[in-house]
Amino acid sequence: MPLDSAKSDPFENLREQLSRADRVLGFARKLKHDSGAVPPGLSQDFSQARSGIEKEFVRVHADLPPNVRERLKEFLIRTRSLDSAGVDQNLDKLARRARSLLNELVINGASAELTEEHFSEDLLTSPPSKRADAGKPVDTAEPPPASTANMKPLWLALAAVGALAVLTLALVVSGVFSPQPLPNIVANVEPPKPDDGRKSGPPKDGVKPAVNFDAKGAGYGAKFGVQPLALLIDPLEMDALSLAPSDLPALQMGLESLVHVIEPGRLRMAPEQTGETMRGFAQSVVDNEKNWIVDRKPLIEAFVGHAQKNLQFSVYPQGEQWLVSDFLSDKGAPRAAALTALAALGRTAGCPLEIIAPTSPEFAMLALQIPAGTATYDGEAFAQRPLPEAAVPMMRLFSLQLASLRPTLKTPGARIVVSAVMLRANSALTLPQCREALADLSDELFADAPEGEKPEHVRARTIKTAAVALVQYLVPTLLASDVGGDAGEALKLWRFAAAARLENLAGEALIEVGKRAAKGALIDGLPVMLVVGDLTRKKGDLAGATSYYERARDEFPDDPRALLRLAEIAADDAARLPLLREAYARGERGPDFLRELARVLTAQGENLSALAIFDDLCALPECQLDDVLNQAAACIALDKPDWAQSRLAAAERFKDEPQVCRLDLILELSVNGASERARKLAKAYAERTNDAYVANLLMRFGIE
C-alpha cells in the first residue's frame, strides 16, 4: 500500500501499518491454533509490516505524545531481530502489544492512552544483535488493570467490539457472507478466488503450493526461462524503433562487445565472461521461482533479494560503473546503472521487469506490473503504485546510459563511436553532445581503414564509420541559424566534412565560415579570412578566394600574407609586382618571396631594384648558388661587371664552385684583359674542366 505523507491526519499512515501488523498477527494466531505452528510466510509478513511501522514512526516521531512514542520505540527495538521461531513463541504477547498500540491511535487519535500497558522487564529480552536468543518465550502475564480514569472508554470500546463480533457471527450463520481469508499483506493484493486452484490439489513438481497466496497478484505468471544471448544487437546498426524491452539483454551485450572493439581496456570483464555470468544468474532465478512462491514473496522483492544475495551488489551514490560488466565485477553501480543491470538480468531470465520514471528518466525505478498496480524498487526500498506506470522508452534509457558511459572512455575514437550510438538511439543529439563529439573529431579518424580482421583494423573501420555518420548530422545541426556557433566551429565542420568526402556539406560549411567571421578574427593565429581564402582556393574558386584575401589584407594592414596569396593567383607579372612591393614594404623577407620579387622585377626590366633584392637574398643564410649567379647577372645587365666581381668575391661559400670560377674568369677578362689574375684563374679552371667556350675566349686574349 503506498504511503502518502501529504494526508491531513499525520498518524493515518502509522495506524494503517499498525492495523496491517495486527491483522497479520491475528491471522497467525488463528493458524497456530488450527495447525500448531505459524507458517514462515506470515513471519515474513510481520517483518515487512514492522518495517512499515518503523518508517512511519520516523516520519511522525516528533508529533507523537511522549508516552506513545516511548512504547512504540520499545516495541520496534524489541522486535527488530525476531526470526520465525521468535514470532511463533511470542505470538500472543506481540498481538496484545500491537493491538494496544493500535487502540491508542484509533480510539483517541493518539491524544490519550486507552490502557496503561507497559512492557515488562522480560518482554523479548533478547538484544537485537543476538538473533540466536530471539526465540525465547515472552512473558505472557496479562497487563495490569487500567487506571480508573480510563476504565469507562475501555469498557465502551470492548462493548462495541463484542457487539460487532455477535453481528458478524449472525451474518455468517445466516449465510449473508462466508468467511474469507485475509488479503496477502506483502503483495497488497486481493485474496485469491476460491476456485483459482491454488488452495488444494496435488503438489506440482514436488513443491507444495503456498496456502492462500495469490501468485499472479504478486507478479508471477510469466514463463521463466534463460534467454539466449548469442544473437547480440549491434548498437551501431540497430533499428531503434523496432526494439522491445525483451531485447534489453541482447542490446546490453551488444554494447559490451562494441566497447571491447573500440577500447578493450575499458572493460572489467570480457564479454564472454559477462554473458556467462548473466546466463548463470538467470538459471538461478528460474530454479528459485517455485521457492519464492512457497515463501509467499512478491516477485520483485524476491528477485532483488536474490540478486543481493548472489551478486552481493550495492547501490553507489556515484561512480563510473555504467556497463553490466561493471555492475557484475564491481558488485554494484550508481542507482540508475544498477537498476538497468537488474532489468537486463531479469529479462535474461524471462522475468518481465522494466524501468519506469514517474518524474523523469533520470530518476527511474525498477518496476513490475501486477494486477493491483505497479510494484517498484528505487534502489533502496520497495513500494507499490496504485496505477500502472508507463515504461521509459528503452532507447531513452539506453541513451542516458551511453551519456554516462562516454566520459569514462579514454580515447577520442571510442567516445566518437558512443556519440554515434547515442545519435542512432535517439535520432538526435543535444547541442552540448554535438559539441563534445566535434571536439573529439580529427582528420586521422577519416583515414582509409585497412581491410584486415586484426583488432586494430576492425577498430579503425568502426571508428571511421561512426565519425562519418556523426559529421553528416553535425554539419547541418551546428550550422543552423539559431544555434549560435562561431567561425571556428564552422571551419572545423568544413574540414571534417572535406575529410569525410562529403562535398556538399563541406561547401555549406565553407560559406558559413565566411558569414560568421568577425572583422579581425583569428583561427590558430591566422586571420579567419586568410584561412577561408585558402580553403576556397583549394576548392578551385579563385574569384571567391580573391575576395577573402582582400578582406584579410584590409583587416590586417601589417600582415603581408594576404598580399602573397593575392600575388600567387594574379593574372601576370604586371599585376603581381605591386602586390609583392607592398608585401616587401610590410616587412616580408622570406627567401622564396625575395626570389619571386627579384624575378618579377627583372622580368619588368627593373634591374637596379632587382639587384637590391638579390643583395638582400644573398645576405641570408638560406642563400643558394643560383642566387649568387643571378645577383651577378643583374650587375652585368646594368653593365657593371666590376660590381659582379665584388659580389662573387663576397660569396665566400661558393668560391670553389665551377660555375662561380667560370663567371669570375670571364668577368676578369672583361674588366682587366689578360691580367696576371686572369692567367691564374684560367690555369686553375682549365685543370678542372674542358670548356670549349672559355678555351676559345682565352685564345682570343693570347692566354694558353
What do you see in this structure?
The protein is 57% helix and 4% strand. With 704 residues, the chain is mainly alpha-helical. The chain has a four-stranded antiparallel beta sheet with strand order 3-4-5-6. The chain has a two-stranded parallel ribbon with strand order 1-2. Helix 10 links the parallel strand 1 and strand 2. The longest helix has 27 residues, at 148-174.
**β content, as a range?**
under 5%
Radius of gyration: 46 Å
Gross morphology: rod-shaped
Q: Indicate the structural class.
A: mainly alpha
User: Mind summarizing the main beta sheet?
Assistant: 4 strands, antiparallel
What is the averaged pLDDT score? 82
Determine the number of helices (DSSP H or I, runs of at least 4 residues).
Answer: 28
- Biggest sheet: strands side by side, in what order? 3-4-5-6
Low-confidence stretches: 1-7, 110-204
Report the strand count.
8
N-to-C terminal Cα separation, in Å?
126 Å
Proportion of residues in helical segments? 55-70%
